[in-house]
Design goal:
heterodimer; A: 310 residues; mainly alpha; MetI-like fold; 14 helices; B: 332 residues; alpha/beta; Rossmann fold; 2 domains; five-stranded antiparallel beta sheet
Chain lengths: 310, 332
């Protein structure tokens, strides 16, 4: 198991280098030049060139990239040109907010998806199944920004229960963004819970459990759910990983100071170091999440554990 | 003469109402089992043996299954009208079942010890540690070393899994044990071990047994009585001697004729011709009539049970014809 984890961690290094390469070159291809826009309007070309050298942005894109990569290999994400601060500082300042939103939304999603998915599976082809499938369909297809605005109108404007923007009021600020994002995630999770449970519900070992005298409630919650958990975990992992990258629209509606909006801002201001830094950190977080999910498999299913041990 | 009945089943009917029509799986079965007796439920695939067993535990999936009967008493308790709570207390404690396919009958994500302990924990007032200790005891009883209690089903062979399934079924010493083809998934040496084990356990705990099988050899080995099923009906019922040596029903005769004979290898096997009738469309008369070598016009009418002796009964109207007998010789 330990060797497996180390192997997976080492495999992330080439992945992250590839990501940095692609993002850096894409940023270079984008029209607009941050140095030119930072220089005073009356600056001569010589002055601009001097500024480039000072900020380490001189030379061809290859030169710049390798300079950036050298820093990266020393775990240095460089300086943000637009904010004139280390990228790492800016990123980690905002990361806790993103984490809050990610875990908050997953919590909401699980709260909706697991009971709904189980109910749909145990009441397969009844009205309950239809209702839950329709609900999850609505959850998936309803535009995030629209649903978020509805929530703001209802619970910030009319009832004034929750703030409509920012993250200053702690848990209270988190409620609306988490519900907005969580509802969207719940749609997919409900569907996967349902189909995974439907698969398990037909298995012979549930009949064995019933024949032992296990109550129907426990047959579903203990015997069936643990077997249905693998596909649910897979979807959960990628959903959570994506949420770490920032839910840009949700963050925008609620003016949530997370990394999603930071990344968009960095790209818009053509700040290559900040944009690259954000995206590299995002892919690192995503990879770690997926690894954690893979490890979690082993605790859910002993057959996978045996497989890792080899 | 009041017999001490562990199971008293009258006129059991089970049908599955599917989109493609109604499947008549069990069509009016009476089954009485005396305490401590072992009865073999014999018949080919699709005869309704497993469905009969499942309805005794009320485990027939509903929908599409519909179970009806005029009486279903287990040790004097009415199973059919039990509350869910009572039913859960009965399952695994008074009646339990060994399932056919050991490869799929165990939950892959719990250790075998846990799965046995769960039954004990549910029915007996013991601590978790105590239930695990007893589960390990059950494992040793079925010949699995104690240290394997914490292993998972995928780490066991088919024969060992079957023993675990048996250990689960016997964990709370049920009064009635249903064994649904407990040896079909096993190779012959393991088969013998499992049968031997079941016989010993039965002696130890005085359990009554319903042995579902299509292997007449196993019936001869283990059972006191035999009930032969065909198309959802018991067509012949009697003691081992009655059915094996004084066979009455043409279908039972056909079953015996399809067993290979080592002493006469030149003799052709005589399989029963044709197929079991479509359970969605059963004939009004004898279901075996289309395949029966003795069939006559009278077989197309509904059949009535006929008692041959106090222990032996048959569902065949051919015995109304004067001097009728099947070809198979009576033996003593």
């Amino acid at each position: 198991m330990g060797r497996y984890v180390i192997k997976r961690l080492l495999m992330m290094i080439p992945v992250l280098i590839c990501v940095s390469f692609v993002v850096y070159f894409l940023m270079d291809l984008a029209p607009g030049d941050i140095i030119a826009s930072m220089a005073p309007p009356d600056a001569t070309p010589e002055q601009i060139e001097l500024m480039r050298e000072e900020l380490g942005m001189n030379g061809t894109v290859f030169h710049r990239y390798f300079r950036y990569l050298k820093g990266l290999l020393r775990l240095d994400l460089g300086q943000s040109l637009s904010q004139k601060r280390p990228v790492a500082d800016i990123f980690f300042e905002r990361l806790p907010r993103t984490m809050e939103l990610a875990f908050g939304s997953i919590f909401v999603a699980l709260l909706i998806a697991i009971p709904l998915g189980i109910a749909a599976a145990t009441h397969h082809r009844t009205w309950l199944d239809g209702v839950s499938m329709t609900t999850s369909m609505i959850g998936v297809s309803m535009p995030n920004f629209w649903f978020g605005l509805l929530l703001i109108i209802a619970f910030s404007l009319h009832h004034k229960w929750f703030p409509s923007y920012g993250a200053d009021l702690g848990l209270k600020s988190l409620v609306l963004p988490a519900i907005t994002l969580g509802t969207e995630q719940a749609g997919t999770l409900t569907r996967i819970t349902r189909s995974s449970m439907l698969e398990v519900i037909r298995q012979d070992y549930l009949r064995t459990a019933r024949a032992k005298g296990v109550s129907e409630k426990m047959v579903i919650r203990k015997h069936a759910l643990k077997n249905a958990l693998i596909p649910i975990l897979t979807v959960l992992g990628s959903t959570l990983g994506n949420a770490f990258g920032g839910a840009v629209t949700t963050e925008a509606i609620f003016a949530w100071p997370g990394v999603g909006r930071l990344t968009v801002m960095a790209v818009n201001s053509r700040d290559p170091n900040l944009a690259c830094g954000c995206i590299i950190m995002f892919s690192l977080l995503l990879n770690v999440t997926l690894l954690v999910v893979d490890i979690a498999y082993a605790y859910v299913d002993p057959r996978i554990k045996a497989h890792y041990a080899k | 003469m009041d017999k001490d009945l562990i199971l008293d089943l009258k006129n059991l009917v089970v049908r599955f109402e599917t989109e493609d029509g109604i499947v008549h799986a069990v069509n009016g079965i009476d089954l009485e089992i005396e305490r401590g007796h072992a009865i073999g439920l014999v018949g080919e695939t699709g005869a309704g043996k497993t469905t009969t067993a499942l309805s005794l535990l009320r485990l027939v999936p509903k929908p599409p299954g519909v179970v009806e009967c005029s009486k279903m008493e287990l040790d004097g308790k009415d199973v059919l009208n039990m509350s869910v709570r009572e039913l859960e207390q009965t399952r695994g404690k008074d009646i339990s079942m060994i399932f056919q396919d050991p490869m799929t009958a165990l939950n892959p994500v719990f250790s075998v010890g846990e799965q046995i302990a769960e039954a004990i924990l549910l029915h007996e007032n013991v601590s978790k540690a105590e239930s695990m200790k007893r589960a390990i005891g059950m494992l040793e009883l079925v010949g699995i070393p104690a240290e394997r209690a914490y292993d998972f089903p995928h780490e066991f062979s088919g024969g060992m899994k079957q023993r675990v399934v048996i250990a689960i079924a016997l964990a709370c010493h049920p009064q009635l044990l249903i064994a649904d083809e407990p040896t079909t998934a096993l190779d012959v040496t393991i088969q013998a071990q499992v049968l031997d084990l079941m016989r010993r356990l039965r002696e130890q705990y005085k359990t009554s047994l319903i042995m579902i099988t299509h292997d007449l050899g196993i019936v001869a080995e283990i059972c006191d009585e035999v009930a032969v099923m065909y198309a959802g009906k018991i067509i012949e019922r009697g003691t081992l001697q009655d059915v094996f040596n004084r066979t009455k029903h043409p279908y039972t005769e056909g079953l015996f004729n399809s067993i290979p004979n080592i002493n006469d290898r030149k003799a052709m096997l005589t399989p029963i011709k044709g197929m079991m009738p479509d359970p969605t469309n059963l004939p009004e008369g004898c279901a075996f009539e289309p395949r029966c070598p003795y069939a006559g016009e009278d077989c197309k009418r509904p059949q009535a049970k006929r008692d041959i002796s106090e222990t032996h009964s048959v569902l065949c109207c051919a015995y109304d014809r004067p001097g009728f007998h099947i070809d198979r010789k009576e033996r003593s």
